[in-house]
Design goal:
Blueprint: E1 2-3, H1 12-29, E2 35-36, H2 42-51, E3 56-59, H3 61-69, E4 73-81, E5 86-87, E6 89-94, H4 104-110, E7 117-119, H5 131-144, E8 152-154, H6 159-168, E9 174-178, H7 182-187, H8 198-204, E10 205-210, E11 215-216, E12 219-223, H9 228-240, E13 248-251, H10 255-268, H11 273-276, H12 283-287, E14 303-307, H13 323-332, E15 337-339, E16 345-347, E17 361-364, E18 371-377, H14 392-402, E19 424-431, E20 434-439, H15 442-451, H16 486-489, H17 501-504, E21 512-516, E22 524-528, E23 541-544, H18 560-568, E24 574-575, H19 589-597, E25 602-616, H20 626-635, H21 638-646, E26 650-651, H22 677-686, E27 697-698, E28 702-703, E29 705-711, H23 718-731, E30 735-741, H24 743-747, E31 762-768, H25 776-782, H26 808-817, H27 820-825, H28 827-844, E32 847-859, E33 863-864, E34 887-888
Length: 889
């Protein structure tokens, strides 16, 4: 499916070209390629590529950088007109400015302390980003180190001629535009200078310098999730049918050009969100004019508006991965038990949480037939949103329905482990208010390994072939997560669910009913459900999306400036689900603190299940010495990194689990690698290094020199982090070179990647997902001997022990933790084993945690009850987990 929502795609003739091209592509590839029209924003297009709703799209270069940097798209080819895939830009000035034409370095030196004319950004038409007129020249000058005087911001509909006219009038010293032959430039008088003689324009203006081609053309991409065979067939077909439109075609993708373009854009410091959050332009967009600033509409007392991204929102099913769906689902869906902000289970549709103590969790049978039973007793008088009674029969149906081979949903728990329903042998309903889940016995588990169980997938159960004792998942209580209405879905084939009307407007039993929504880019409206099990919510109406209060609001999260206006107008009551401050785009933590200081909002800083790490390659002769690793740790001032790069919004860590995690070992059980340069020097001396030299020298290992390898794709900038580490290590005699790679080079999920092939000394990157409620999957993939990537196993991404840590005792401890019976019957021993595993890891220091990332949740002063959790973003506890308790004061 091709996204035709690109520039001009809504003009009849251009749409026709796309459809003809798709037909030819179908014939050449043997695939069914169709054009999908619409008016999506760039982010919506990228999101559609990410989740597979669109497979091919023509992206502008900025959208491509964003999507490729997140790993959502892969390039197929570059658009070309007259064979050209990139354009140069040129710097212009008045002849009497004192600036002289010359080579790039000479001209850039002359521009120091001069005033540029930049188009104001964002401006009235953010769909047309001023690449040549602002982003690219600003980035080039920044890379050169040229310090400019304060820019003059030009407004108007035509930025190229606008900045030219401003230079001619002497408003500023220079500007930049798309390159053109000098004779053409001299002969094109800007319309803003109507009445000025052509001769005067030609005599008084000059071209200072023309760059090499640096402004790329559009990129034809394919979704990263597309099978390799599909990508190959499409790529070959494009070579056969390259043309789209008049004088247009495709050329091979130029990776070097885009690497250079990415560096320039990053150096420019431009905030791209106003551009990415608007639709691709069409004729209707060009004709609009804004005559006044739109006003935020205050919300009634019984309503709240939540500022959330509107990407997705066309279906609402369990196991949502899209931001909007993840935030809406806790409000409309209801499980038997639910995780609270601290990661502990609380009763929801169930009257109480089953435990061994209350007898609702029990072992039944003997020897090979012994099995675990988990019984849930339902609250009385449960109802679906349509008023139909909800009984235990619905829960039996839900388990049987999702345990079909064609189930389109996930079978992973909130901890990323195989979901507990996979290990259930049978579900029974002794009465309308009681349901019992009977997990597999040893005999049934081994049989499933042979037959594949209800899913007919022996590979899924292969690990149970020699299983001993009853099957006990550590997160067995999540077995009650599937709660679906039998009276609606019983006649629907399970494979039809994803595209059904039910998916767009579902009937669940949560605190709110979905009454409006299901259209891309539109707010989702919920109404309080009077029949909710825990009582009707106090807030009657919830709108997800700031566009409910301001039609022109972005479909992404509002900037702090826009958010301030919305809060001040009492039009927005909270901003939820923001994964991180976008520090690379100069969004500042102080912008959020200012909201609180002005009493417009409470700002809750919440840790994430994500931390920045410095991996040590233990195969390096220097780093194989624990004393050297500890010296590096003591030489790095991690607190200074948090203060300087994150504005203080981060937390130090001693383990791979942050201090807020329920399974954290505790400070007293873990070593503290506090900033101590003298301690670092002493450790190096003890390891045999001559620290009087720079770099320090070892008699057999040689100079103490490392390379930091990284990729700059995090919300926070990694280059300043790497540079701080470089300077701090130099103080103790360690020489460090810094090298940044593209995402594809660094993170490729095979042996070609720098990280997966372990071709680094020090690896600066991030860990995501280690802090799940039960981090067993992460530990198995990142800390065991079996998880060390190598050419022998193909370096897959799930082999994530990039340091190459080998510790038999740690592996044995992890095997004990995999036994869910320990977690159930010996919770103290379970915590002790986790503490032991963390102690071994932190003591041997295969990686140094630099900081735990924090994110802001913004809440209006009159909204009470919001308690965001670190377990958000797929960990089972989104920001709306307790929305049924919220009130307006």
């Amino acid at each position: 499916m091709v996204d035709a929502g690109y520039a001009g795609a809504f003009v009849h003739e251009t749409r026709l070209y796309w459809e003809r091209w798709a037909q030819k592509l179908s014939q050449a590839s043997g695939l069914n390629v169709i054009v999908k029209p619409g008016h999506p924003t760039k982010l919506e297009t990228l999101d559609a590529l990410r989740v597979g709703k669109v497979h091919i799209a023509l992206l502008d270069p900025l959208s491509y950088l964003f999507g490729h940097g997140h790993g959502w798209v892969k390039p197929l080819a570059m658009s070309a007109r007259n064979g050209q895939t990139a354009r140069a830009i040129m710097f212009i000035a008045r002849v009497d400015s004192g600036l002289k034409p010359g080579e790039q370095n000479d001209v850039f030196d002359q521009l120091a302390n001069r005033r540029p004319c930049w188009p104001r950004w964002p401006w009235s038409r953010p769909t047309l980003p001023p690449l040549a007129e602002h982003f690219l020249p600003a980035g080039l000058l920044a890379l050169h180190g040229t310090k400019l005087a304060s820019p003059v911001h030009i407004t108007g509909d035509y930025v190229e001629t606008g900045v030219q006219a401003a230079v001619f009038r002497g408003v500023c010293d220079f500007a930049a535009v798309d390159a053109m032959p000098p004779a053409m430039f001299k002969g094109l008088l800007p319309g803003e200078l109507q009445g000025t003689p052509f001769e005067r324009w030609a005599q008084e203006m000059q071209v200072l310098h023309v760059t090499e081609p640096i402004n790329p053309a559009d990129v034809l991409v394919i979704a990263a999730t597309a099978p390799a065979e599909v990508s190959t067939r499409i790529a070959r077909a494009i070579q056969e049918v390259p043309e789209v439109g008049i004088q247009a075609g495709y050329q091979p993708f130029d990776a070097q050009l885009f690497a250079k373009f990415e560096r320039i854009i990053a150096a420019s410091g431009i905030d791209l969100r106003p551009y990415l959050a608007v639709p691709h332009w069409g004729p209707d967009h060009l004709s609009k004019r804004t005559t006044h600033e739109p006003r935020w509409v205050p919300t009634p007392r019984d309503t709240i508006v939540l500022d959330v991204p509107l990407q997705g929102g066309t279906s609402f099913l369990p196991d949502q991965s899209e931001e909007l769906g993840r935030l809406v689902m806790p409000a409309i869906y209801a499980e038997l038990v639910r995780l609270d902000a601290s990661g502990r289970y609380m009763p929801y549709l169930a009257a109480e949480v089953p435990t061994l103590d209350n007898g609702l969790v029990r072992f039944v049978g003997k020897n090979q037939d012994e099995h675990l039973e988990v019984e849930f007793r339902l609250r009385p008088n449960l109802r679906w949103h349509d008023g139909h009674p909800l009984t235990a029969d619905d829960l039996v149906f839900a388990w049987e329905w999702v345990m079909q081979p064609n189930w389109p949903g996930s079978h992973l728990s909130s901890s990323g482990l195989p979901a507990p329903e996979l290990f259930v042998d049978r579900v029974v309903a002794p009465s309308p208010n009681r349901v019992i889940y009977r997990f597999m016995s040893q005999q049934q588990a081994r049989q499933a390994a042979q037959t594949g169980g209800r899913l007919k997938n022996p590979a899924l159960y292969a690990g149970l072939a020699q299983h001993a004792g009853p099957v006990v998942p550590v997160d067995y209580l999540e077995v009650g997560r599937n709660v679906l209405p039998r009276h609606i879905l019983n006649s629907m084939p399970v494979e039809a669910l994803a595209g059904s009307a039910f998916a767009r407007r579902p009937i669940y039993a949560g605190a709110y009913r979905l009454v409006e929504g299901g259209e891309p880019g539109k707010p989702v409206i919920l109404q309080a459900f009077a029949g909710f099990a825990l009582g009707k919510p106090a807030i009657q109406r919830v709108a997800f999306g700031a566009r409910y209060a301001l039609e022109s609001a972005t479909g992404y999260w509002q900037t702090p400036e826009q958010l301030t206006k919305g809060l001040q107008a009492r039009a927005i009551q909270a901003q939820l689900g923001l994964p991180a401050i976008r520090l690379r785009e100069h969004e500042n933590p102080q912008d959020y603190d200012a909201l609180a200081a002005r009493t417009f909002a409470r700002v809750i800083w919440v840790p994430r299940d994500w931390w920045e790490v410095l991996d040590f390659n233990l195969d390096n002769p220097h780093l194989s010495d624990l004393r050297v690793r500890r010296a590096v740790a003591h030489a790095i001032d991690r607190g200074a990194i948090i203060d300087r790069v994150l504005g203080g919004r981060g937390e130090l860590m001693r383990s791979y689990l942050p201090a807020w995690h329920p399974l954290y070992a505790g400070d007293t059980h873990l070593p503290n690698y506090a900033f101590d340069p003298q301690r670092a020097r002493s450790l190096l001396q003890a390891a045999g290094y001559d620290i009087s030299r720079m770099p320090a020298m070892h008699p057999t290992r040689g100079a103490l020199t490392f390379e930091i390898a990284s990729m700059d794709v995090a919300p926070h900038p990694r280059r300043p982090i790497a540079e701080l580490i470089q300077k701090q290590l130099a103080i103790v005699g360690i020489a460090v070179h810094v090298r940044f790679y593209s995402w594809e080079e660094f993170e490729a999920q095979d042996c070609s990647g720098i990280r997966n092939s372990r071709k680094f000394d020090l690896g600066l990157a991030g860990w995501l997902g280690s802090a799940k409620p039960h981090p067993l999957r992460w530990a198995a993939q990142a800390t065991t001997v079996a998880s060390i990537p190598s050419p022998d196993n193909g370096c897959p991404f799930e082999k994530s022990n990039w340091s190459g840590w080998r510790n038999t005792r740690a592996d044995e401890t992890l095997m004990k933790l995999m036994n869910g019976r320990v977690a159930l019957q010996q919770p103290d021993e379970y915590r002790r084993l986790w503490a032991e595993h963390q102690r071994l890891w932190a003591t041997e220091l295969p990686s140094l945690p630099l900081f735990n990332v924090m994110r802001p949740v913004v809440v209006a002063p009159d909204l009470v009850g919001v308690h965001p959790s670190p377990f958000a973003f797929g960990g089972g506890v989104e920001d709306t987990w307790n929305i049924h308790t919220w009130k307006r004061a």
